[in-house]
Amino acid sequence: MAKPKTDPNYKVIAENRRARFDYAIEDDLEVGIVLTGSEVKSLRENTSNIAESYAAVEDGELWLVNGYIAPYERAMFGHEERRRRKLLVSKKELARLWNETQRKGMTIVPLVLYFNHKGIAKMKVGIAKGKKNHDKRETEAKRDWNRQKQRLLKQG
């Protein structure tokens, strides 16, 4: 059997692993992101963090707030590390996101920042509701039980 070819362009840059623990993610959406040249070069070197960031709908546009992209040393014109970056989404999806956040009290959380198969920087955002402490404990207990179950199955 032939091995499936891995795409050299697809590359995960940053992942917000904490988001799935802190939020109950109901839906996710792939969005584009507006970047400058030095930001793209920096992302190709895997120097970014989206753990403390969030997305917000303001003035009819979707923005990524507090996302970190390290400065690129060899750039002639650098960029601001934590500037607000515009996220690209259709008007229909933008209206849906606005309704979810304003009426239902949901938040838009960035989940993964990656280069897609065409080599274009994309971000997956989730529409989420914050978990309470007892929900977090329940999630942790399920995860621990699944780990223990896997260990038992592996031993036996």
Explain what you see.
The protein is α+β, with helices and mostly antiparallel strands. 31% of the residues lie in helices and 34% in strands. It has a seven-stranded antiparallel beta sheet. The longest helix has 23 residues, at 133-155. It is globular. It starts with 10 loop residues before the first strand and ends with a helix. The model has no long low-confidence stretch (mean pLDDT 84).
Provide key terms for this protein:
single chain, alpha+beta, 7-stranded antiparallel β-sheet, two-stranded antiparallel ribbon, 4 helices
The number of distinct β-strands equals 9
Global mean pLDDT: 84
The N- to C-terminal Cα distance equals 30 Å
Spans where pLDDT lies below 50 across 5 or more residues: none
The tally of helices reads 4
Percent helix, as a range, is 25-40%
Shape: globular
Topology:
Layout: E1 11-15, H1 19-22, E2 23-33, H2 37-44, E3 48-49, E4 54-58, E5 61-65, E6 68-69, E7 85-88, H3 91-103, E8 107-115, E9 121-130, H4 133-155
Brief characterization of the structure:
The protein has helices spanning 19-22, 37-44, 91-103, 133-155; strands at residues 11-15, 23-33, 48-49, 54-58, 61-65, 68-69, 85-88, 107-115, 121-130. By secondary structure, it is α+β, with helices and mostly antiparallel strands.
